[in-house]
Amino acid sequence: MSSDDLLSTAEVWTRRRLMQLGAAGALSMSAPRLAQAAETAVHRSMMNVAFEKREPHVALIGTGGRGTSLLGNLLAAGAQIAALCDVVPAKAEHAASLVVAAGQKKPALYTQGPHHYEELVARGDVDLVLVATPWNWHAPMALAAMEHGKDVALEVPGVRTLEECWQIVRASEQTRKHCMILENCCYGYNETLILRMIHADLFGELLYGEGAYIHDLREELFSNAGEGLWRRTEHTLRNGNLYPTHGLGPVANYMGIQRGDRFASIVSMSSPQHGLDAWRKQHLAPGDPRWQERYICGDMNTSLIKTVKGLTITVKHAVTSPHPYDRINLIAGTSGLFQDYPPRVYFDGMNKDESFASLDAYKQYQHPLWEREGDLARKSGGHGGMDLIMIYRLLECVRQGLAPDLDVYDCAAWAAVAPLSVESVRRGSAPVEFPDFAQGKWRERPISAIATQA
Ligand SMILES: NC(=O)c1ccc[n+]([C@@H]2O[C@H](COP(=O)([O-])OP(=O)(O)OC[C@H]3O[C@@H](n4cnc5c(N)ncnc54)[C@H](O)[C@@H]3O)[C@@H](O)[C@H]2O)c1
Fold it and tell me: Per the domain annotation, does 394 fall within a domain?
């Protein structure tokens, strides 16, 4: 897909929305006039826009594995749960029982089919909607929530296609509602500590970073429950970096992406696909319907992103071959580098044998969020506590009327990596440009909100 195609997608969306908003003559507007009208009537940036200050009333769509875990974090952080939705009534009932056990009244349940969420988002007593459903549902659910005046927070990887990226950006700008990404890895103990070390200038001028989602999901992908019911299908549809944000989000924060820099272009290549075929051979009986599936996503995708300022980021995706869990989480500058798994640092002139040092000596950079809520986070669980920290911080932003840490521009730019990597792989690893979802406003926002807040 060329950048012209991307623009035309945005244009179609803009024209439609202008017509919905009653803009006279939107249908017959020439492209330049449409762009101008869009600029004034549609493109009012949501960057640095504060949440309306309130005690949030939360609804959760998708009460499967992730939704139930998020619900535990929401309850631990004292959130009021007004409504729950899942196509499987037993899952919604189980989630409701957790809300009741936490001392709240039973939330309203929406379990009548895949579109029942449309009634949930129309409720007057809900103002914040969390979405933890299969990927193909994220965009329609986010758009419906914003159209009904609700802020929305999407589970990773955000949305699936470039068109959806533009749609959530435009919808957020028009409705003045936020569409955030729930990228929990940005709130990890190490990630927040490193972010503060970067802003204390320990790493010098930043040069390059690396992130990954390397997680052997073969058994889960073939499970007859949970993600096995839908996630394997993604491997039959696209060949690229399907799940980039866990590795990329923290690196983007370190580098200040959408805060003085942005992703400019990507090149991507995929290894052959053999992992799912081999697993199927070992585990499936002859005649199993899953023998009909054809997997096209390479077992290891390696993508390289270049930023406008020239920094480089490697993003890997490997979920279908044996490998210990690894997000790499590397950031390097002129004074030294940090790399995770295990966490270690190396600074210029540190020692003669060029060995890494432990991160333990840098505890004074612990993030204030972890200082305040670390005990609760570790107790509540969820990926070492980072899930609780993320949810706590989301609620804090709403309660205090702050701008969200990770807004619709972060969501769109990070989510775009999947479709752009697919496009680059399809074109023999040709470079593909990122759209500028924030239309230049990224230049005006110098530092990550996670780094600045105390
Ligand atoms: N941030 C993390 O660490 C993390 C971890 C796991 C999963 N996830 C993400 O969370 C999301 C959900 O994953 P999961 O593991 O919970 O999957 P899951 O299959 O366990 O849960 C999805 C739930 O959505 C429900 N659902 C499907 N279509 C629906 C619809 N139209 N309306 C209402 N409910 C619907 C399903 O019945 C199911 O209960 C995915 O985006 C996944 O990538 C994130």
Answer: no
166, 253: one domain: no
Counting every residue written for the chain, the total comes to 454
**Could you tell me if residue 393 is inside a domain?**
no
What is the β-pairing status of strands 80-85 and 108-110?
A: parallel
Tell whether ligand 1 has an atom less than 6 A from the beta carbon of residue 181.
no
Q: Total domain count for the chain?
A: 3
Tell me: do 240 and 373 sit in the same domain.
Answer: yes
pTM above 0.90, yes or no: yes
Q: What is the pLDDT of residues 397-430, one digit of tens each?
A: 999 999 999 999 999 999 999 999 999 999 999 9
386 assigned to some structural domain: no
Q: What is the Å distance from ligand 1's center to 4 Cα?
A: 33
The predicted model gives 102-110 an average pLDDT of 98
pLDDT of residue 357: 96
Average pLDDT over every residue of 166-187? 98
Q: Identify the CA nearest to 46 among candidates 420, 450, 411, 415.
A: 411
Distance 147 CA to ligand 1 centre (A): 22
- Please calculate the CA angle 371-70-222 and round it to the nearest 5 degrees: 125
Average pLDDT over residues 113-137: 98
DSSP 326: B
Which CATH number fits the domain that encloses residue 292?
3.30.360.10
The pLDDT assigned to 16 comes to 54
Domain encompassing residue 243: 186-379+402-452
275, 216 in Cβ contact below 8 A? no
Q: Are 164 and 170 in contact (CB under 8 A)?
A: no
Task: Look at residues 212, 309, 305 and name the one whose alpha carbon lies nearest to residue 256.
Answer: 309
What is the identity of the amino acid at 96?
A: A
86 C-alpha to center of ligand 1: Å? 9
